[in-house]
Amino acid sequence: MTWLDLPDDTLFGLDNLPYGLFSTPTDSRRRVGVAVGDQVLDLAAALAAVGSTHAEVVDSGSLDGLLAAGRPAWDAVRAELADLLTDPARAESIRPLLLPRSGVHLHLPFTVGDYVDFYASEHHATNLGRLFRPDSEPLMPNWKHLPVGYHGRGGTVVVSGTPVVRPCGQRKAPDEAAPTYGPSRRLDIEAELGFVVGTGSLQGTRIGVDDLADHVFGAVIVNDWSARDLQAWEYVPLGPHLGKSFATSISPWVVPLAALEAARVPLPGQDPEPLEYLRGREDWGLDVELVVAWNGEEVSRPPYREMYWSPAQMLAHLTVNGASTRSGDLYASGTVSGPRREQRGAFIELTWGGAEPVTVQGEQRTFLADGDEVVISATAPGVGGGRIGFGEVAGTVVPAAP
Amino acid sequence: MTWLDLPDDTLFGLDNLPYGLFSTPTDSRRRVGVAVGDQVLDLAAALAAVGSTHAEVVDSGSLDGLLAAGRPAWDAVRAELADLLTDPARAESIRPLLLPRSGVHLHLPFTVGDYVDFYASEHHATNLGRLFRPDSEPLMPNWKHLPVGYHGRGGTVVVSGTPVVRPCGQRKAPDEAAPTYGPSRRLDIEAELGFVVGTGSLQGTRIGVDDLADHVFGAVIVNDWSARDLQAWEYVPLGPHLGKSFATSISPWVVPLAALEAARVPLPGQDPEPLEYLRGREDWGLDVELVVAWNGEEVSRPPYREMYWSPAQMLAHLTVNGASTRSGDLYASGTVSGPRREQRGAFIELTWGGAEPVTVQGEQRTFLADGDEVVISATAPGVGGGRIGFGEVAGTVVPAAP
């Protein structure tokens, strides 16, 4: 029982406590905050107020210090937070350190290292295969043997709310003789979950498939903005590049892995059985439900529990070749799409390449127009019996630069 | 005329002056150094000795400060270096700041941001196309319209001399029913040049094809180690991932762009003419000659002047979608291969997929064995009429981790 006055149905109860980075209109310092109810707790100040030895690690202007501190510190800070928010004797000293969330500005919470994007939804990969390669088998022969992924651009990961400038580049439709240059005409989203590495690993070593929780600090919602016309022309044979590298947005609150305990479920099933390094003893499917809203209207509910590959398998695969990982590395799941149309996490799938528009605020729509806003939110079961929230990742498309 | 006693044929004369990061057995501080002859100059100390205002910017434990300082600072420091190494009145104060290069330890000189690898040699792309996709046209339709590239792993860029652990992963030969797990059996190199971004650019903006010198600080040799069996199985449809991400080695000396003035040559010719954003007024072909030595024996001399796309075109393309760049971003050319067999910069090409071994120290060889060492060096014409050197990037293969 907390001494805070939280509504029963809050998505930010004591079983969530995600971390972010905030400043206020009157104090531009970037401080680590914890979302609780509709407030944000100044974490360093709160830990200092209760004499915690961890106050210093979170007092560094970003989440970087806490990420690097490792799992024992993550567990200890979470326990201290639970304690100071439930002990009535703390109320007087902690209450002044809570600010209304509506009044703070949220920043990119950590320094992004390498960004890898996977392709872990069988429904998404099958749909994209049909759309990009209509004359071939939609799934490549490797797809059910390994979590296919590629490196994206870490430097263009931005926090929710950052405007997305429509990218320019080369487009060539199959019936055109040569490519032309100009703003993307097929600007799309990809609704994903992203996993934030806290404790890295050395070059030449691997992270085992059962060691996820020792390395991953938490999860965010990702919108991997995609220019489908740029991507379709450029992507052979080395994969997506400019069609993706202009912007990737993440939600400002990092939900700790510990808060997702009640969301853990078995994977839907893997056939053939993967190679041993990808076979885990623990369930790391996640029953997270995403919601995609286009100009305020819900258009899709992608179910993360349908994903073929788990985040534990992704990390084991990412490092099986001895690639090092660093605190702040981000890896994302790839588009979350379920089997049904209204569960597809990208507009190219939802509108089947533009052939089957969706109705948004009364209009028939396919890809993104300038001025459009996309908001992706997510919730999951919490250990308290209710639900927890990831908050949202929002972005508005602004016209291409001249 | 320098007051230093330099051999006439030194590759590290006053027309070169590349920057690196060194420590010594008796002083573990990492200091920015400049290679001159067979010595290294302690740059911050030298600039301080002559009262330069730039001493502070290079006294930060890496090249990061100088990279971020921008082109006017790069030009000023280079002019100050020329001055203090030619003015006899400076000899007495500067001489004690010169250390034998053979006695210093060289470190990764800058913090690597995003790493992008291009694919800019027509000979290499054609050879790889034939080897990876024998039943198709070797060059994809996009190849002559844009510099194809993809993101690699910035966190696994290492300095010359770092051992390379043989990567493990999934391999599946075309005649095998299912993939198996184990150490790569087709470990290869890629001899490349890499370009180091000093002055970055904001998200939503572009770097014009004629603005290379305002953004790129200098160049290094790159060995983009490649596990061809891992790569062949994983790379469709999202491109290379684990086949490349285990290690990328760079030479420790960053050759300033200004030192490459005499190496600038026209490109071999582009047909069709590229789109306008890729058409530059200035020549940025580079007459750099690479030499690949395998266990001490020269096996290839890849000519950079044969590259189809210029580094100015690569940077313009990389940012045409508004992707931001940061100080420390690294982009590499892709394998440098010329038209002749002995000019191929990867062993998969040199040995035609292993079918045509080369003789190394009397043995028939195809891919890399544990214990093998590869050293790639490079030279170019200097503005002084002789040649300048990039030094070398070396790496020894060590057995896969258990």
From TrEMBL, chains A, B:
GO molecular function, one term: fumarylacetoacetase activity
Positions of transmembrane segments: none
Residues covered by the Fumarylacetoacetase N-terminal domain: 16-109
Key words, A-Z: Calcium, Hydrolase, Magnesium, Metal-binding, Phenylalanine catabolism, Tyrosine catabolism
EC number of the protein: 3.7.1.2
Cofactor section: Ca(2+); Mg(2+)
Keyword Calcium assigned: yes
Domain Fumarylacetoacetase-like C-terminal: 116-397
Ribonucleoprotein keyword on record: no
Gene3D superfamilies associated with the record: Fumarylacetoacetase, N-terminal domain, Fumarylacetoacetase-like, C-terminal domain
InterPro entries, per database record: Fumarylacetoacetase (IPR005959), Fumarylacetoacetase-like_C (IPR011234), Fumarylacetoacetase_C_sf (IPR036663), Fumarylacetoacetase_N (IPR015377), Fumarylacetoacetase_N_sf (IPR036462)
Pathway as given in its UniProt record: Amino-acid degradation; L-phenylalanine degradation; acetoacetate and fumarate from L-phenylalanine: step 6/6
PANTHER family found in the cross-reference section: FUMARYLACETOACETASE
Entry protein name: fumarylacetoacetase
